[in-house]
């Protein structure tokens, strides 16, 4: 069974978005994964199809109602083994390790929040896993869901043309990736590092490894103190 993504959103027209293009788009056309964007509003019961209400306790903004969102969730996910994710700045920061786990499974049900967020009771009652894509606030969960799916889809079997690319990437070995160079040999008086054109594969590997370690030490020392996830 191909990886199956179901999105719950107030803006289904935002999908597949950029995932309809390039490698992910071709894989979608070939049926190597599927995407279904479901309108949360279809589960409202009043004639204005209202999905939100004012926050209990007062304050600015609106909150997505638990009864409507839970109906939408129940409609699309019935113990099918897919994780139920809620895009949320309060969630666990998304990592390449979690991306790999999700990609290895049958798919994902992804709730996209809007307004101030969703009623806590639906998060608790449906055991939604809150996932953040970083320490900043978006206006809605849709771009966050597209980001998560982008990371997942590109590592599904058969999606990336060259199976080897992806092996040495940032985070895969607990390090940031080494720098890349290509022709021309000289660009604005800057040469490609000589070792890369030496033909000495052992030396090239060692240089890349040293550069990856240097960059990680300089930019992301926090990664060096984490257990390697491979
Ligand atoms: N009031 C909330 C923010 C709501 S932003 C708070 O302060 O925590 C509206 C919606 O955008 C959220 O429900 C969530 O689905 C999405 N969103 C915003 N920032 C996000 C982030 N960094 N990662 C994942 N989803 C995010």
UniProtKB/TrEMBL annotation:
The keyword Cytoplasm applies. Its EC number is 2.1.1.228. The keyword Transcription does not apply. It is an enzyme of class 2 (transferase). It catalyses: guanosine(37) in tRNA + S-adenosyl-L-methionine = N(1)-methylguanosine(37) in tRNA + S-adenosyl-L-homocysteine + H(+). Pfam families: tRNA_m1G_MT. Residues 5-225 form the tRNA methyltransferase TRMD/TRM10-type domain. Keywords: Cytoplasm, Methyltransferase, S-adenosyl-L-methionine, Transferase, tRNA processing. Its main location: cytoplasm. It is found in: Cytoplasm. It comes from the Bacteria. GO terms for biological process: tRNA N1-guanine methylation. S-adenosyl-L-methionine binds at residues 113, 133-138. Homodimer. Specifically methylates guanosine-37 in various tRNAs. This is tRNA (guanine-N(1)-)-methyltransferase. The gene is trmD.
């Amino acid at each position: 069974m191909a990886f199956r993504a179901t999105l719950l959103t107030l803006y289904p027209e935002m999908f597949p978005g950029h995932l309809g293009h390039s490698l992910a788009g071709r894989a979608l056309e070939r049926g190597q994964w599927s995407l279904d964007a479901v309108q949360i509003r279809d589960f409202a019961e009043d004639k204005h199809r209202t999905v939100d209400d004012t926050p209990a306790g007062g304050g600015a903004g609106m909150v997505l109602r638990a009864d409507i969102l839970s109906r939408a969730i129940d409609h699309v996910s019935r113990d099918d083994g897919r994780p139920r994710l809620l895009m949320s700045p309060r969630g666990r920061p998304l990592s390449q390790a979690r991306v790999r786990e999700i990609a290895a499974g049958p798919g994902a049900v992804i709730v996209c929040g809007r307004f101030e967020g969703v009623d806590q009771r639906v998060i608790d009652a449906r055991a939604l896993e809150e996932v953040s894509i970083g320490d900043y606030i978006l206006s809605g969960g849709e771009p966050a869901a597209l980001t998560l799916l982008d990371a997942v889809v590109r590592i599904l079997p058969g999606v990336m043309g060259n199976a080897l690319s992806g092996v040495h990437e940032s985070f895969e070995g607990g390090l940031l990736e080494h720098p890349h160079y290509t022709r021309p040999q000289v660009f604005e008086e800057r040469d490609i590092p000589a070792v890369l054109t030496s033909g000495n594969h052992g030396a090239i590997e060692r240089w890349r490894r040293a550069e990856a370690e240097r960059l990680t030490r300089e930019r992301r020392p926090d990664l060096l103190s984490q257990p390697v996830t491979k």
